[in-house]
Amino acid sequence: MSHARLSLILAIVTMVIWGANFAFVKYVLDALGVGAFLFIRFLTMPLLAFLLLGLVFRRNLAATVPKREDMPRFIVCGLVGHALHVGLVFWGISLSTAFSSALVLTSGPLFTLAILVVLGVERLRASQVAGTVLAMAGIVIFLSDKFARGVAHAGFGDLVLLVAASFFSLYTVLVRPLVQRYGPLIVLAYTLLFGAPPMVLLSIPSILSADLAKLTPMVWIGLFWAIVLSSVGGWMVWAWVNHVRGIARSAPLMYLPPPIAGIVAWLTLGEHFTWLKIAGAGITMAGIAWAQFGGGRPPPREAAQPDSG
Q1: Which position among 87, 171, 263, 287 has the lowest Cβ density within 10 Å, counted as fewest Cβ atoms?
Q2: How many Cβ atoms are within 10 Å of 146's Cβ, its own excluded?
């Protein structure tokens, strides 16, 4: 099998994993709680990342240590991309639904575009403005049933997820030069090294009060899916897919997780969607695609990666 065909197959499998991950995470959060989930995730992910690092660079592990001049950026990326972003993602998912979470987090490229415009890296075109306005209108339509019940019920979790998406966009801009110099595995391991400890410390009280003995096998399967398959495995496979297929060809696949998340949530969690919600979701993804690709240039490597926590 050629690398091109294998990369397409793995890309679609990764999208399915990331899409289904929202339902798994929602189920685990309801059973375990946000704090205990964050403790387990941030305790195991650095261990898994450095285990992979040791296997890949076993003959020259010292060469993976970042240079002193890059350390500040590694620290900032760890705190922004892992501690702040991931912490807010799981808090937001716990307050929202799996489908809403997947859709709102897909708005990340809009924030990435805004950051690049502010930095002077990207010039905003009329098509990108129109796409952004369309995407925002779609989100309003999607959340209209919540707004109809009043501001207090307007989806605080979805607002938290919007903030999380903005942090992920900031992370993608900050981490780009590190990925170019060190590669995705080294960047993942060392940003986790700096981003995980604060979250582990903050979530210790939650894990101490959690009754892990009462967790069902399905919860443990959900933890494995979310941490090993989606977070560690997904990030590594997606980096290889981008390398083989190129950003312009792989980025459109990022619009698969929201509908997959909706189908899985409907089948497993009993979530229901009105035609208004489905229309709002479609308008949102169309607007994001228009804004992201309307400039005629492929998005940055990291911006092409959907985020499912």
Answers
A1: 263
A2: 18
